[in-house]
Amino acid sequence: MRRILIIAEKPSAAKKIAYALSDKGVRIVKVGKTPIYATTFKGQQIYVAYAMGHLYNIVQKSGGWIFPVYNIKWERTSPKDRSYNERIKETIQAIAKIAREVDEIVVACDYDIEGSLIGYNVVKYACGEKYFKKSSRMIFSTLTRNELRKAFDRRLKTLDWPVIEAGKMRHEIDWIFGINLSRALTLSLRRVGDRERILSIGRVQGPTLKLLAEREIDINTHVPLPYWKARAIVEINGVKYVAEYAGGNIESEEKALEIKKIRDKYATVKKIERKVTKERPPPPFNLGELQREAYRIYRISPGKTLEISEKLYLQALISYPRTGSEQIPDSIDVKGIIEKLGEMREYRDLVQKIFEHSKRPKPVKGKGTDPAHPAIHPTGEKVNIKLSGNDRKIYDLIVRRFLASCYRSMTKSETRALLDIEGHLFVLKGVEIIDHGWLKIYPFKKVTEKPFPRIVEGMKLKVIRVEVEEKYTKPKPRYNVRSLLKKMENLGLGTKATRAEIIEILFSRRYLENPNNIEVTDLGMKVSEILSKICPEILSVELTRNVEQIIDELKSEYLTSEYRKVIVANTVLGLYSVLSKMKKNEINIGQSLVGKDFKPHVEGKPIGRCPVCGNQLLIVRSKKTKKRFIVCYGRTTGECDVTQPLPQKGRIRPLHETCKYCGYPLLACVSKGKEWVFCTNIRCPGKRKNV
Amino acid sequence: MHKYKVPRQEEKCVICDRLRESESLYCKYHRLAYERLKSGYNEWRKRKKNITWSKYLDVVYNNKYTGKWIKEVIEGIRRGKHEGKT
Predict the structure, then answer these.
(1) N or C: which end of chain A has fewer CB within 10 A?
(2) How far apart are CA A608 and CA A654, in angstroms?
(3) Residue B79 domain-assigned (yes or no)
């Protein structure tokens, strides 16, 4: 019997795969403490194991907490990593043990850069490179039984190498940029005595922070300009209507006063225009749009939306959520999915409407494409467990959006009447929805209806009054999480999977505050300002966008390991000069970051004033050698660089006197019952004179 | 060891503690704010013919949409600390 080991990305995906590929039920085999699903499928023995996200990460090969660092290697995830899990070691041992007994290893992680890389690392490091020859790749977008069986039967005969290389490339570039720049900033802080804070900056964090800092500057230097808005209140059949000034905003006080002086009691209807427009239904969601809508409608943060949608995917309720596509390919059985949704009580009426509209419903296609996965859509699988509040909201949003995309357009009529009052033109507008269409299914878009009166051209309307209001231009609005996500997407910053995380990191580093109305903190402004001065290229949108473009282009072509190394080397080449500049300006950067009021704390015994700078001289111990010596407090802020050695034996006591030759404090040292007095300055002229 | 040059009082922006821009009394941000305040006055005069500089400063200072740094520059001007004066 042929034996196959399938590696899934997460435990719940492993379970789904095992049950989908089972002919006679699933057993759980314990290898050590790790459960592995075992089953048989078409005469083959199947074992399904799972990774828990990234089991391997990039680490520094050698050296301490320094920069620059370019020597890297992949290693098992350690407790220092964010993705660490206590069961990682046991899981790797279990996979390695099963791998020795099987004829084939199938990587069934999510079909994207991260999933392919997770699978590759498990095969390479847990099983061994010799297993590459018998490894294959399953590709699927939903965890439904049918699709998993199909994906297993049609699996690729090798691993998806270009995608793996693209994943390695992104991880390597991001790691090298992130670790070096973050260490450079943090070490600048340490240089001036701030040992508490850790700062970070990276390939995507940098341009995003700059974007926000520029907006902050715009808001803080905004000078409001005056303008005037005029409107006429007219009465038609006892009902009051508001007509706006046709010229838009008035930019001159003279003109505004002229309009204000209108005394005419009647307005003449010059022209009436009616326009009927159809609005196509919105396409099914990609991740960015789902995150934006969830935030707009329910104020659910993008990170939370991603977390929930991944959970729904693992429950086989929706398709793979990390997608940029807004299209459902013809190969997906849309009708079947809608029929299954119709079996759920809450969607029965909506599904009925869809089938009344079309026997073969077809979702509209959006612009977004993704070669790996279709737009996010429900699978139609029954919701067996009770979904919690937010989970239910996100699921409902996805279902309604998918159903709405199959329904008919919304039709509305917009009517405009041009009114003449003393030679000044005003516009009376009305909006009426003729057919709600998809709005009935996805009622989250607001279309305000405005009644339009029964009037004809040439008619005289009674003017109640003309109002002129002085207004001021507003600054550009602050970003919120939703608008920032959209901006990042438009600029090509980050990927659909990483944008939300990047924003959260910027908040956690205290560069930003107030997610609903993002403000850049003083620290955020300083980091952005310093990097703009020293290394503007790191903050440039182009750098990060180019890397993303290269990754996207190459993952679908043939990207070899050698080519990847060349691209990584070329990309990080520019970093070298940036880091040199940062090293050279370490003190200046640190000083600018900590601010004028910062006073670093130094553990030490004061012995008197430094004759060079006037700061306190302290007796401290080296952490490394444990030896005692004298250091000037001014050294922590870069003002002074005085250090002096001390005898290592004996008890030292300050005498509160200064040396008459050099001004350094005098100390007394007591050892073996003897006491002697000495000047703390090793180059004291008094010593040369043998005084 | 690199020596950090602590900015002397006369090297600091007259409004905040940032370093002055060359040939200016202001730091980078307050200089930008001052320039925008000046160009804003020209635009205001196009829109409101008879507005004086001091009236303009009053109206802008009390406006809720005015930027924080603009307000700080106006406060500086009122205290006599602005470009052209020392």
Answers:
(1) N
(2) 8
(3) yes
